[in-house]
Design brief:
Distance between the termini: 126 Å
Strand order of the largest sheet: 3-4-6-5
Helix content: 25-40%
Number of helices: 8
CATH architecture of the largest domain: 2-Layer Sandwich
Largest sheet: 4 strands, antiparallel
Strand content: 5-15%
Number of domains: 2
CATH topology of the largest domain: Muramoyl-pentapeptide Carboxypeptidase, domain 2
Radius of gyration: 41 Å
Shape: elongated
Number of strands: 8
Structural class: alpha+beta
Length: 304
């Protein structure tokens, strides 16, 4: 009886073999799974390792973009050759030309320039307040914008008329600080007019500025039509009782609330809003120098 019981407790050899096979198979499966996990971890690590390289390349691209915008790589503006003889180094700029005591023009330039201008009294009915000044002559492009500006003013103040008080001049004047000798006057350019509404008086005097709604309106609105207050008080350089003072800072030497100069709408907007002057009204001298056209304002030289 004892031997029969002991025999029953033994596992058949076939079962043992099956169990061993199953254990082997399970071991193999575990090993395969572990190997796949190791490969996945390695690939993830390689992917993470490659990320700084991509970022580094992107940052390098950004640096190159910044360099391309740097001031050193901006092209230096050039001044086209002057089409009129007898001018100065800025006359090739056309409506941005500069004429003053340091940037002068001669009689040849003045004569040719006069022949290029149009009569705004005949074309647009803009009259000269002082008959002694003769026919109001202006550059054709400037004349069109002047007409628009005059109409806008007269629409804002019905019953009022904006007139000229001298536009182009063939000769300068020699009556003191507010006058410019021949060759130094901006009136030779054909882009300038002294403007006045005689309802507020017919005297060109800065002391009357508070009474002149016309000059106040022009100061606030002229840039919309391509004109600038050419001689604001901030850029006079010194009192009108002192000698003219033209400096490298861009002073004009004059203070005239009636003197308006055509430079084009984009340029007038930049000057009036102080793009190159910290938001404050600019002078033409300072504006041209900041844009890179001029070299020395006191020597009358350009960057050419």
């Amino acid at each position: 009886m004892k031997n029969r019981r002991l025999g029953r407790r033994r596992l058949p050899w076939k079962i043992v073999i099956c169990l061993m096979v199953m254990v082997a198979i399970a071991t193999i499966i575990v090993v395969i799974l572990l190997m796949r996990k190791d490969n996945s971890s390695q690939n993830q690590a390689e992917s993470q390792y490659s990320t700084p390289t991509d970022v580094e390349t992107h940052e390098s691209d950004n640096v190159e973009e910044v360099k391309s915008d740097s001031p050193e790589e901006q092209p230096t503006p050039t001044i086209p050759p002057a089409s009129i003889p007898g001018g100065n180094c800025t006359t090739g700029l056309g409506k941005l030309m500069l004429i003053n005591a340091n940037y002068t023009v001669n009689s040849d330039f003045i004569s040719v320039r006069k022949s290029q201008l149009v009569d705004i009294s005949a074309l647009y009915g803009i009259t000269e307040a002082n008959a002694w000044n003769g026919t109001p002559l202006v550059d054709e492009e400037a004349a069109q914008h002047l007409n628009d500006m005059v109409k806008a003013y007269e629409a804002a103040y019905p019953g009022h008329t904006l007139q000229t008080m001298s536009c182009f001049r063939s000769i300068g004047t020699s009556c003191g600080r507010l006058c410019a000798p021949t060759g130094t006057s901006e009136h030779h350019s054909g882009y300038t007019c002294d403007l006045i509404d005689t309802a507020y008086g017919n005297t060109l005097d800065t002391d009357y500025y508070p009474e002149h709604i016309d000059w106040q309106w022009l100061k606030a609105n002229s840039y919309k039509y391509g004109f600038i207050d050419r001689y604001p008080v901030e850029w006079a350089g010194s009192s009108m009782m002192q000698p003219i003072n033209l400096t490298e800072d861009g002073t004009t030497g004059y203070y005239e609330t009636w003197h308006y100069r055509y430079v084009g709408i984009p340029e007038a907007t930049e000057i009036a809003t102080g793009k190159y002057n910290n938001g404050a009204y600019d002078s033409l001298e300072h504006y041209l120098k900041m844009r890179g056209f001029l070299n020395s304002l006191t020597a009358g030289t350009c960057n050419q």
